Amino acid sequence: MLGTTILLALREIRRHILRSILTTLGIIIGVAAVVTMVTVGNGVTAQVQENIASLGASNFVVFPVRTNRGAPRPFDDGDVRAVTQQIAGVDIAAGNAGASATAFYNGQDWDTRVQGGNNDLLEAQSVKIAEGRPFTVQEQEAGNAVCLLGLKVREAIFPPGTSPVGARMRLGNVSCQVIGVMEERGQGGGGQDDDDTVYMPLKTVQRRFKGNDKLDFFVVKYDPAYEAKVIQDSLVDLLRERRLLQGAEPNDFNVIDTAQINQTLGAVTGALTVMVAIIASISLLVGGIGIMNIMLVSVTERTREIGIRLAIGALAREVRLQFLTEAVVLCALGGLAGIGLGFLASLGLTAAIEVPFVFDPVINIISFVFAAGMGIVFGYYPASRASKLDPIDALRHE
């Protein structure tokens, strides 16, 4: 019975194909908008989480800030050692010093950024070596001129298909030996492209590029088993003591908890995605009203047909089921079309704004079920009205 009813519904939809398409347009647009917004929102969330992850998980990033005293006071290696030795729960504390430089190799040049940091910093920031090796202890302590290349730097100055490991290149006026290439990392904190980076031992950058032993910032990797708030408070107290800040004097440094940022930004982008999806769902309601309207028109057009069916023995519930099935099939087809349109729109938008395409089967299934459900909600009244027609009056209808 149900199969026959569905076939009849498809026949009626095909008989008025243009009207059916126009009727389901609201459903198609609504479903496509919901799918697109959720998919793009998931991609933006994934991109944000990836960017934060470049700073390392379970990390604090500590950097100096300007106060009414004047320019920011930089940190030094003593601050990093104190944090490691005096705060429980700290696994790694590692400093960073950076400078801009032009990379040269075999007639090719590329403007990039040199980051000074030891293996502890690479570990804290989850930097992986794709080719070659990390720094040795001797290279770190002696400040040797060795370097690790980001993928973008490698592609810019080295011929395709050749390994840069072992080659000598120049960074500004400093000649260095390439000992490794880092894995792709993408966009990092502060808008910095982490693939457009060259890492050298911290002492090398401090001596050859900066001319001092100061740090731009340092990273503290803590044990997740410890309470992050307790470690952060201890870190702030220790640095205030070392920097001789008294009483109500404001901190001349800032401490960023990367895990907290990740959670906060994930929650914000998730909430925005839900809000936009809810707004887009209004199109579904408009589409549902259009379905009800066209089904009422269909009942009026087919009043005589309904009268004949009732007169030869069709039950009222069978007439109701027929019109309800037509409404559900119409909405389901619109839902499928909307999912397809949303999929294509999501591919285009994520590519345009350069965020990952994160396919979410759950939202696609929910959208389809919701669209089909709209057929039940908005198709029930026209179907009920058709089933209650008097056979005699229906047969007399012109």
Structural write-up:
This protein has 398 residues and is α+β, with helices and mostly antiparallel strands. The chain folds into 2 domains: 2-50 and 263-396, no CATH class; 74-251, no CATH class. The chain has 13 helices and 12 strands. It has a 6-stranded mixed barrel with strand order 3-4-9-6-8-7. Helix 1 crosses helix 11 (316-353) and helix 2 packs antiparallel against helix 9. The longest helix is centred in the last third of the chain and has 44 residues, at 258-301.
CA radius of gyration is: 33 Å
Q: Give the distance, in angstroms, between the N- and C-terminal Cα atoms.
A: 29 Å
Largest sheet: 6 strands, mixed, barrel
H/E series, N to C? Answer: HHEEHEEHEHEHEEEHEEHEHHHHH
Total number of helical segments?
Answer: 13
Query: What topology, given as strand order, has the largest sheet?
Result: 3-4-9-6-8-7
Mean pLDDT: 84
Helix content: 55-70%
Instruction: Return the domain count.
Output: 2
Extended strand count: 12
How much strand content do the residues show?
A: 15-25%
Which class do the helix and strand fractions yield?
Answer: alpha+beta
Shape: elongated
